[in-house]
Amino acid sequence: MEEKILKYDKLVIFLVWAGIFLPHLATLPVNIMEARNFITAREMLLDGNWFLTTMNGLPRYEKPPLPTWLTAFSAMIFGLKNIAALRFPSALMALLLIFFTRHLSLHLSQSKRFALHASLIVATSFYVVYAGRDGSWDVYAHAFMIGGILYLNKFLSADEKLYQSALFSGVFIGLSFMSKGPVSHFALLLPFLMAYGVVFRFQSLKKKLIPLVLLLISALIISAWWPLYVYLFDRSAAETIAQIEGNAWVNNSVKSIFYYWSFFTQSGIWAIPAFISLVYPYLKTKVSNPKVYRFTFLWTLFAVLLLSLIPEKKARYLFPVLIPLAMNLSFYIEYLFKEFKNFKRVEKLPIYLHFTLLILVGLAFPFTVFKLFVRSLLFLKYWYFGASFLMIFLAVWMIILIWKNNIVKLFYTNILLLLTVILVAFPLGSLFYDNPDNISSRKITIAENTYQTTTYSYGEISPEILWQYDQHKLPQVDRLKHLPDFQKATFLVNENNEEAFLSNFEQDYNIKFLINIDVNPFTKNKKNHKRRLTAKLFLIEKK
Asked: In CA terms, which of 288, 373, 397, 406 is 20 to 30 Å from 31?
């Protein structure tokens, strides 16, 4: 079976990517990170703010603009209101990431089978799937960086095509910076260099000095030109934003230094095998290439250690760790394929546990969904029946394969299970979005037309609300003395600013509450309901 897959490995990888990253891209609501990106892309297209980027008309320099440029180009072709089109560039970057991982794995191991497994594991790891279906910045930064590392590895390990490898590495490292600043440099490149130095050593660098300079210069030019442009033409805003961003790394979402040490769970369906692959004393003498295994193990470990040193911690920051972890796991998968039938019972237990959990998920799926959403399934019944049949079928198929000790087919069934979730079960996710009070920001436009007003925001409004607003921007007013001259206007105000807003206007203006705006997909009694996704629209008229 696997020989046929290996023969068409690139096609298999492409089909797995297409099945995971393309279907139902518009199903999930736009989140805060996406909203910031989409608003900035919209203002690029409508206002021409391609270099001095803005969000709601205010400077938006927190992130470099490359991902937003690509989002804007997609919107230019497919339309600004097409959510799937706005997320499509991220899916393309996931494809780039997967193939760069394949080529890097192949170059390190000289094994086509190892490279196939590594790329399929990356493609199906939880946070890679999430980021590749999400219209924000992470997948861009890490995809370009893996490209940079691929050519850097070629540069360090060979004496041919040095200038070509150096130039390509520098370009991709620079493009990574243009996607999310130095994030991937710290989380992927630096731990790669640390692990490479320990395992392979940096040999013959003196002979490669000139192409190395080319690498550094090309990376520097591509990385530095936009920040320099912003600094020259909007220095004050750039310095203020840089200071805020620096403080955020130290003061926001501060977690324990041990927060990331369950990092292997972020690989999703591979969590248990990923953990076993990190038991270095167990595997170091069993893998096909101990030296490369040591390298991928250290690369993974150094990445987690470095991320743990940063005070600001979020689960999604572990995304880059999943790339070397996938290569590390590939060694364990390769060992399973060769020796599973000869394993002692205790060695088989983690694999039995892994597939038992997947089997239970498959068997429980139809009953759990029916119990939770029995009143709402009518409009999605075909998706429900299709997903239920396939999940039960795959669960039963896994039971048969476990009985036969067929670990090769179990590996690919693991991937088929995730494909089933994305292709057939994913539309059922909309059943969770049950807020009966959901009122889109587009209602503001109706009020504007009714009362013939311009709408302002008093204080900051959440990006998700701004994204839905039809009229493109809500000019922001923070204090009474900054008010524009008007006889009548509408104001959008969030809960935190409502008291100050009313006290400022109660003497000289008539105030009329018009409507609550609520873009929460979840009802008020659920934990996921967020107050920042609500605001009130008021009509203000001078007395």
From this structure: 373
Report whether pLDDT(82) > 80.
yes
Would you put residue 397 in left (φ > 0), alpha (ψ -120 to 50) or beta? alpha
| Residues 169 and 152 sit within 8 Å (Cβ to Cβ) | yes
The pair of three-digit structure tokens given for residue 318, joined into one six-digit string: 């572990």
Q: What span, in angstroms and rounded, lies between the C-alpha atoms of 39 and 18?
A: 27
H/E run at residue 507: none
- Amino acid sitting at position 487: Q
Per DSSP, 181 falls in state: T
Could you tell me how far CA 163 lies from the centroid of its own chain? 32
Find all residues with CB under 8 Å of 364, minimum gap 6, and list them. Answer: none
C-alpha–C-alpha distance, residues 110 and 530, integer Å: 50
Give the DSSP letter of residue 496.
Answer: G
With contact defined as beta carbons under 8 Å apart, do 512 and 538 qualify?
Answer: yes
Paired strand residues for 458: 477, 493
Residue 289 neighbours by CB under 8 Å, 6+ apart: 109, 111, 114, 331
Virtual CA dihedral for 293, 294, 296, 302, nearest 10 degrees? 160
Rounded CA separation 153/9 (Å): 23
Strand 54-55 to strand 534-542: parallel, antiparallel, or no bridges (unpaired)?
unpaired
Question: Are the beta carbons of 413 and 394 closer than 8 angstroms?
Answer: yes
3-state secondary structure of 257: coil
Element (H, E) at 238: helix 235-251
Q: DSSP labels for 396-447?
A: HHHHHHHHTT-HHHHHHHHHHHHHHIIIIIGGGGGGG---TT-B-TTHHHHH
The phi-psi region of residue 204 (left if phi > 0; otherwise alpha if psi is between -120 and 50; otherwise beta) is left
- Of 407, 416, 412, 411, which Cα lies nearest the Cα of 387? 416
Token digits for 124? 């199906």
**How far is residue 487's CA from residue 543's CA, in Å, rounded to a whole number?**
9
pLDDT in tens, 399-440: 999 999 999 999 999 999 999 999 999 998 888 887 777 777
First to last CA, the chain: 80
Q: Where are the alpha helices (DSSP H) in 421-538?
A: 443-451, 463-468, 498-505
Under DSSP, is residue 490 helix (H, G, I), strand (E, B) or coil? Answer: strand
pLDDT digits (tens, 9 = 90+) for 221-243: 999 999 999 999 999 988 888 88
At 230, list the tokens.
Answer: 């912003």
> Using the 8-state DSSP alphabet, how is residue 30 labeled?
P
| Token pair 């959008």 in the structure block, residue | 492
Q: What is the mean pLDDT of the chain?
A: 91
Q: What are phi and psi of 437, to 5 degrees?
A: -95, 10
